[in-house]
DNA sequence: TTGCATAACTGTAAAAATTACAAAAATATT
DNA sequence: AATATTTTTGTAATTTTTACAGTTATGCAA
C-alpha cells in the first residue's frame, strides 16, 4: 500500500495537509463525488476547509492525471480516482452511476482518421438492474 | 428531402416558427453548437428570438430524441443533431470537436452486468491531425 | 368574424456552479 | 529571526441554466 504522501510527491505535487486529506478521501470513497460532496464530507472533520481549496486541489490532481473529470448528466462535474480502464453506466431512472470493467481492450487504436488517440471514455445509459427488478410500473 | 415541418410533427412537436428555424439551423450547421451559438447565429435574422426559447426548444428536441446533449470539456453544453451512430474526438490542443464514424458495431450489447443498455457514447481525446502536422513546437 | 381557451414566446429575475482575487496563514529559505 | 514563496481561505464576480409571469400567437366554437 503506497503512501499518499509518496503518490503526490511522485507526481510533482507538494503534499500539503489539505491535498493529503482530499486525496485520501477520493481513494477511500470511490463514488465519483462532486466538489460539493467532497467538501461537505470533509468539512465535518476539517471545519476550516474552504470550498475553493477543494476546487483548486481537484484541478491540480486533474492536471497531474491523478484524477478524471466525469460528465454525468447532472449539472455538477464529478471526479473519478479509479485509474484503471473502465466504462461508466448511468441509470436514467434512478440516476445512479456504475463502474463497468473493460475486459477486452476494445480500444487500443493509436490513431483514428490520423488523429492521435490518447484517451477513450465509454459512457453507457439505460436502466440498471435494481430498477429493472422493481416491477412497480 | 423530408420537410422540417413533417419531421417535427412526426415526433409530436407542434411546428411553430421558432421551432422550425431552430431545427433547420441545427440540420444545416452540424457543428455541435452551444445554446449561445445557436442564439447568436439566429438572432441576426430573427431579432425577436429569445434565448429562453432556444433553451426550451432544445430541451424539447432532446426529450423527443431528435437531438443529443453533448458534454465537451467546455463549460457550455453542446448539441448534436446527427442521429447516426458515431463517436466524438476532442483535440486537447486546439479544442476542436470531430465526428468519427462507427464502422463496426462495437457495442450491440443489450445487457451488461444485468443492466439494460439503451445508449452508448464513445468519447475520444488526443491531438488532431491538424495540430499534429503543425510541427511548431 | 368575434370571443375564449390553450399553447408558445419573451424578458427579467433567480439559482447554481465555477472562477478570480486579495488577504491571511503556513512553509521554506537565507 | 527575517524574508520569500507557497498554500489556503473567504468573498465577490462571472457564467450557465432555470423559473416565472406577462404578452403574444394560435386554434376552435359559436
What oligomeric state do the depicted chains represent? homodimer
CATH architecture of the largest domain in chain A: Orthogonal Bundle
Per CATH, the superfamily of the largest domain in chain A is: Winged helix-like DNA-binding domain superfamily/Winged helix DNA-binding domain
CATH topological fold name of the largest domain in chain A: Arc Repressor Mutant, subunit A
Name the overall outline of chain A: globular
Major sheet summary line of chain A: 4 strands, mixed
| Poorly predicted runs of 5 or more residues of chain A | none
| Name of the CATH first level of the largest domain in chain A | Mainly Alpha
Which strand-content bin applies to the residues of chain A?
A: 15-25%
Number of domains of chain A: 2
**Total DSSP E strands of chain A:** 6
Rg of chain A, Å, rounded: 17 Å
- Average pLDDT of chain A: 92
- The residue fraction in helices of chain A comes out at 25-40%
Query: Order of SSEs of chain A, N→C?
Result: HHHHEEEEEEH
Computed structural class of chain A: alpha+beta
Strand order of the largest sheet of chain A: 4-3-6-5
Q: What is the count of helical runs of chain A?
A: 5
Binding site for Zn(2+) (chains A, B): 91, 94, 128, 131
Keywords (chains A, B): DNA-binding, Iron, Metal-binding, Repressor, Transcription, Transcription regulation, Zinc
Protein name (chains A, B): Transcriptional repressor
Binding site for Fe cation (chains A, B): 103
Q: What report would you give on this structure?
A:
Two copies of one chain form a homodimer. The first copy, chain A, is α+β, with helices and mostly antiparallel strands. The first copy, chain A, contains five helices and six strands, in the order ααααββββββα. Chain A has helices at about 5-10, 15-30, 35-45, 50-65, 130-135, and strands spanning about 70, 80, 85-90, 95-100, 110, 115-125. Chain A has a four-stranded mixed sheet. In chain A, a hairpin with a 5-residue loop joins β3 (about 85-90) and β4 (about 95-100). The longest helix of chain A is centred in the middle third of the chain and has 13 residues, at about 50-65. Chain A is globular, with a radius of gyration of 17 Å. Chains A and B meet through β6 of A and β6 of B. Chain A binds a DNA duplex (30 and 30 nucleotides) through α2 and α4. Chains A, B: Keywords: DNA-binding, Iron, Metal-binding, Repressor, Transcription, Transcription regulation, Zinc. Chains A, B: GO terms for molecular function: DNA-binding transcription factor activity; transcription cis-regulatory region binding; zinc ion binding. Chains A, B: This is Transcriptional repressor.
